[in-house]
Amino acid sequence: VTPVRSCLYCESAAGDLPQAVVYEDREVVAFLDWRQSAPGHVLVVPRRHMDADELFASETGAALLRAVRQVARAVRRALAPDGLQMGAIVYPAAGMRGSGLPHAAPLAGDDEEETAEDHHFHLHLLPRRSAGEVARIFPFGDAVEPAERLAELARRIRAALVAEALGGTD
Ligand SMILES: [Zn+2]
Fold first, then answer.
1. 122 CA distance to ligand 1 middle (Å)
2. What pLDDT, in 10s, does the model give residues 68-106?
3. Measured in angstroms, how far is the CA atom of residue 9 from the centroid of ligand 1?
4. What's the predicted TM-score (pTM) here?
5. Sign of dihedral through CA atoms 34, 138, 103, 56?
6. Which of 73, 79, 111, 137 is least buried, going by the fewest C-beta atoms within 10 A?
C-alpha cells in the first residue's frame, strides 16, 4: 500500500513522525495526540489510508474497535479519568481542511493537513474529568505537548496495557 503523500496519519503509521505510541498491531496504531485535550488523549488510526466508509466495511474496522477497547481500558487503568469518550469524523464537510482544524502536528509550521477529499480515518479517545459536559476534541490554542510529557504518559498507558493483558487487578 502506498502511503498518501503528505498524510499525517500515513506518516504516523509508517513511524516517520515523532510520536508516543501506546499500541500497535498489523492493522492499527494508537498514539498520543501531540496536543492533549486532556492527559491521555489518544488517536487510534488504521495503518492503511482509508476513510470511514472503507474502514467500517472492512475487517480493519473490527480490528480498530478491538484496539480502542484495549487502549481505553489501559487509559482508565493508568490515569483513572472520571470517564472516557470517543470521537471521530465520519463524513468530513466538503472543503474542510485538517478535519476543520489544524491537526496536531509535531512540527512547527507544517502544511501537511489532511483534506476532506482525502480523509484518513482517525478516532480520538478522550479522557474526561467531569460528567456534565461532552469533552471537546479541539479546545485548541493549546501548544503541542512537550515530548517528554507525551513519552511519560505513553509509558504509563503501555504499562497498563501489559497489566490488562496479564489480567491483573491493580
Ligand atoms: Zn493516510
1. 10
2. 999 999 999 999 999 999 998 888 776 555 443 334 343
3. 5
4. 0.82
5. positive
6. 111
